[in-house]
Write a structure and sequence with these properties.
This protein is of the alpha+beta class and 469 residues long. It has ten helices and 21 strands. It has helices at residues 32-39, 52-57, 77-80, 100-107, 125-137, 156-171, 199-209, 358-372, 408-431, 435-454; strands at 17-26, 42-43, 64-71, 85-92, 112-118, 141-146, 181-183, 222-231, 235-244, 246-248, 252-255, 260-269, 272-274, 276-278, 282-287, 298-301, 312-315, 331-336, 339-349, 393-395, 463-468. The protein has a seven-stranded mixed beta sheet, with helices on both faces. Strand 12 (260-269) and strand 13 (272-274) form a beta hairpin. It starts with 16 loop residues before the first strand and ends with a strand. Mean pLDDT is 77; it is low at 1-14, 377-381 and 431-461.
Length: 469
């Protein structure tokens, strides 16, 4: 089946709407869904915990999608003038620890993050996990301090300022230093229909976070499928987000996991028919002659562009909030989009003395996370390694900011060298040669060398080999 010619990049003619995907993350019961309800004007079939199990348990169990639209703001007209409207698609993510893989599956599609924090409780366990996920997903984040209505009215402003100062201390240790924080009461008194406060400020901050650089629609079509359902007499509808490239009606697309190619019969964006969709668009794609029972979540792509593999080499970072060991030969869950498999990992790193000083490790880690960000538009690239020109040694465990400890033989050699250098320095001082300045420089140089060896950051040139189990 031949593919239809895809039109050139640009706005979708049927809508003229630029779509921005916003992930809404936070600890369970922080009020994420209430915030989404207060912001949204258009709901999808999977919005606001419509899943019966979600209603029964009172928590978000799956990704929910809704949106609101505003006129294109003046400060974006110069670069996005081809679009007349700006649409924010809100991706309501679960907050429960057991659903972290669902959250990971959702972050691949987002452009920015709203991190919802219950102002009465501050940072909680899943808040920290969501912060780690956000660092991987994007460089743009807004913090919403929700449930401010539950603070005593007397002293409320002071309590909010205190919460902001405390949170800023934590965020200063991430790439989100100096990010905006907005106090909100999304559902005052937990009463349905009660007017929310602070929501307009959230919209204003989201507008300020929209990147001025237009998305690129180049590359082969790639689409993240998050829901699937049949329509009698029409076909099977796959809803999701275009990750890369473009797609048009009558174009041939492939389900790589099933190795099936089908034609696109029609498409809709939040119930509006459209003839094509580009990177960043949230769309429903109707395919002909496809059994909906075969598909739940996964990828849709241009035919022949997504390979399958059983082994891989990847640059990795140890999460700095995790103090336990991450050992080679251990089994891990590896998630790529919505797919998760078991794999055995083997870690490799640079030899001793070829890492970075410990004082630089934190900044290097932040820079590396910036490069790894799926939504990064600054041209940064992920941590790279040179398999042809550098030596990487097997490591029993992955080291992070704590650095790799010195081998006993190396530590002994350094101690002997230092003792010898100090003795030589003392002799020169006694002879009147070199003086304090020379000895000080030499001692400083040796200390620097020891720091470089003993303070190696595990992120410096570290890679891992994955083998499915």
């Amino acid at each position: 089946m031949s593919s239809a010619r895809v039109p050139a990049a640009g706005p979708t003619p049927a809508s003229g709407i630029l779509n921005i995907n916003v992930g809404v993350l936070g600890h369970v019961d922080s009020g994420k869904t209430s915030l989404v309800a207060a912001l949204s004007t258009t709901l999808s079939t999977a919005a606001l915990d419509k899943n019966p199990q979600s209603k029964e348990r009172g928590i978000t169990l799956d990704l929910g999608f809704s949106s609101f639209t505003v006129p294109m703001p003046e400060h974006l007209l110069a670069t996005h003038g081809a679009y007349s409207q700006l649409q924010f698609t809100l991706v309501d993510c679960p907050g429960h620890a057991s659903l972290i893989r669902t959250i990971i599956g959702g972050v691949q599609i987002i452009d920015m993050v709203i991190l919802v924090v219950d102002v009465n409780k501050g940072l909680q366990t899943q808040t920290a996990e969501c912060l780690v996920v956000a660092e991987i997903a994007t460089s743009r984040m807004l913090v919403v301090l929700n449930k401010v209505d539950m603070l005593p009215e007397e002293g409320r402003a002071k309590a909010i300022k205190k919460a902001i100062r405390r949170l800023a201390t934590t965020f200063d240790m991430t790439k989100f230093a100096g990010l905006p924080m907005v106090p909100v009461a999304a559902k005052p008194g937990a009463r349905d229909g009660a007017p929310s406060t602070g929501v307009d400020d959230v919209r204003a901050h989201l507008l300020a976070l929209v990147p001025s650089v237009p998305r690129s629609a180049t590359g082969p079509f790639l689409f993240a499928v998050d829901h699937c359902f049949p329509i009698k007499g029409q076909g099977t509808v796959l809803t999701g987000t275009v990750l890369q490239g473009m797609v048009a009606v009558n174009q041939s697309v492939e389900l790589p996991a099933l190795r099936l190619s089908r034609a696109v019969r029609s498409m809709q964006m939040f119930r509006r028919p459209t003839q094509r969709a580009a990177a960043g668009d949230r769309v429903g794609i109707c395919l002909t002659q496809l059994d909906a029972a075969l598909v739940e979540r996964g990828l849709l792509a241009a035919p022949g562009t997504v390979p399958t593999f059983s082994m891989a080499v990847a640059a990795v970072e140890k999460i700095r909030f995790y103090s336990g060991k991450v050992c080679s030969k251990a089994r891990f869950h590896i998630s790529v989009g919505h797919a998760t498999v078991m794999a055995q990992l083997h870690f490799f790193g640079l030899p001793e003395g070829q890492g970075v000083p410990q004082e630089q490790a934190m900044q290097q880690m932040v820079d590396s996370m910036e490069g790894m960000s799926l939504g990064s538009s600054g041209g940064a690239s992920p941590l790279s390694f040179d398999l042809g020109g550098r030596e990487y040694l097997h490591q029993d465990e992955l080291y992070g900011l704590e650095g790799r400890p010195l081998a006993p033989s190396t530590a002994t050699l350094l101690q002997l060298t230092e003792t010898s250098q100090e003795a030589a320095s003392g002799e020169r001082k006694g002879d009147g040669e070199g003086g304090d300045t020379g000895g000080g420089q030499e001692g400083e140089g040796l200390s620097g060398q020891r720091t470089r060896r003993g303070g190696i950051s595990g992120s410096s040139g570290c890679c891992c080999a994955l083998r499915p189990r």
